[in-house]
Amino acid sequence: MDFQTVEAGWLSILPPIIAISLALITKEVIFSLLLGILSGTLIYSLLANLGASGTLHVTIDLMIEKVGGNASMVIFLAMLGALVVLVTRAGGSAAYGNWAARRLKGKRSAGFAAGLLGVLIFIDDYFNCLTVGTVMKPVTDKYNMSREKLAYIIDATAAPVCIIAPISSWAASVISYYPTRTGITGMQAFVGSIPMNLYAVLTLAMVLWLNLRKNGDFGPMARAERRAEEQGVSVSAEESGDGRAKEKVSGRGTVFDLVIPVLFLVVFSVLAMLYYGGFWEGKSLFDAFGDTDAGSALALGGFGALFTAFFIFVPRKLMTFTEFFAGIVDGVKSMVSALIILALAWTISGVCRDLLATGPYVAGLVQQSNLPVVLIPAIMFVIAAGLSFATGTAWGTFGILIPITIAVCDIVAPFLSVTSLSAVLAGSVFGDHCSPISDTTILSSTGAGCNHISHVSTQIPYALTTASVCFVGYIIAGLTAPLGFTVSVGITLPISLVLLCGLLFVLPKVAPGTSR
């Protein structure tokens, strides 16, 4: 179906509000997303003169379009689920857990190792979320780190790392949205935005702080950590009941049976990104990463990793030929729940972006307001955060706000262009980071084996803490921007880091998470 966007005005913000509110109230993500989608398609059908009866067929057609457009990611996630099961049954995960437990001396070192691995896997956030969870879950479980804390570490080192990595799928997205005919290229603007991307920088600093400081958690996360210490790690029904706990695990697996498949997954994915980007057709390394098809490349990388796993598991009789392919089937089954939620999240994002023009409506409100010039970065941070949180997509927010922001700054405050771009990127990542309908939020909880709503409710106070410092930081950045970008960064970034450290020192005392 060829959808024509309608101008829904304030009604365009109802679907994400309904979905997010119900998710937080009922704790049922699928139900909440479905009602959000149906409310949006009902509004669309009525405004497009399709009648209420058009709601269902618009919903199904849109869902088919979105799932079809993300088919490569569906395939990659299915293959990654299969790889997780195969590595577990080959004994690789258990061997790695035992190896790491002998070298990591406690919960803090395990958390630091998880954060470091998240930083190292900077190519794509989807890849990051599931790979870090697969590798680190056995280790953090051993030291009774709550799954909520692991999910936060994964989420905080996924998009925040990708948005400051010049060679990543996120960088390619930002560059593609940057307007032409400006004084600098999209790559120059992206690289320039990195030091002023306060949310990404401060989030990574917060992860480091929480892993180095004993008893540094606060609020719901502190309660989750205390529960894990006293009662052990809560695992899903699939792991504790009919699923992983009853799997036949080889007792002859080694650490290399985990490391080699994951390493080949990384290598094959990078090579596939270069292949799809045209590196071997004469393009530069960066241009190839910028022009690649990340979803297809990851799917090809997943296939290569499974192919590798077959030849290191079956000939060594860690599992039989039949057991290997049974493991693939079980692995795909383990991803069904996450894939359902992702399909619904993609669909409601399509409702907001393609049907009701939620983004342009919000952006129009910004353009019509008379903002003091020095507040542009702070205001754009808030708008980007709200839009990304409501729609569950940072990339969609990039596409809407980057051209508008650069156009406004070129007219009224050219010296704020890069700072404002940084604010849009930071706000978009913040909203994506803590939105219940964000795909990276969903994948982080999936990778950690954590209940999705538990992940959201424990992560939001941490994300809001960082975001509040960012808001103050962007006010300072706007005030100091006339002094020059380098001077502004030199003033803004240290002050923001000091403010964050002060909050992180005080919050565990005022919100220790002791109440139920």
Strand content: under 5%
N to C succession of SSEs: HHHHHHHHHHHHHHHHHHHHHHHHHH
Query: What is the mean pLDDT?
Result: 82
Which word captures the global form? globular
Low-confidence stretches: 240-245
Distance between the termini: 49 Å
Q: Specify the number of helices.
A: 26
Estimated helix fraction: over 70%
Number of strands: 0
Describe the structure.
With 516 residues, this protein is mainly α. The protein has a domain at 71-180 and 249-337. Helices cover 75% and strands 0% of the residues. It contains 26 helices and no strands. It has helices spanning 14-26, 29-47, 54-69, 71-89, 92-103, 107-120, 125-142, 147-156, 159-162, 169-177, 186-193, 198-212, 219-231, 237-240, 256-277, 285-291, 294-313, 321-334, 336-355, 358-368, 376-391, 394-412, 417-434, 439-448, 452-480, 485-510. The longest helix is centred in the last third of the chain and has 29 residues, at 452-480. The termini are far apart.
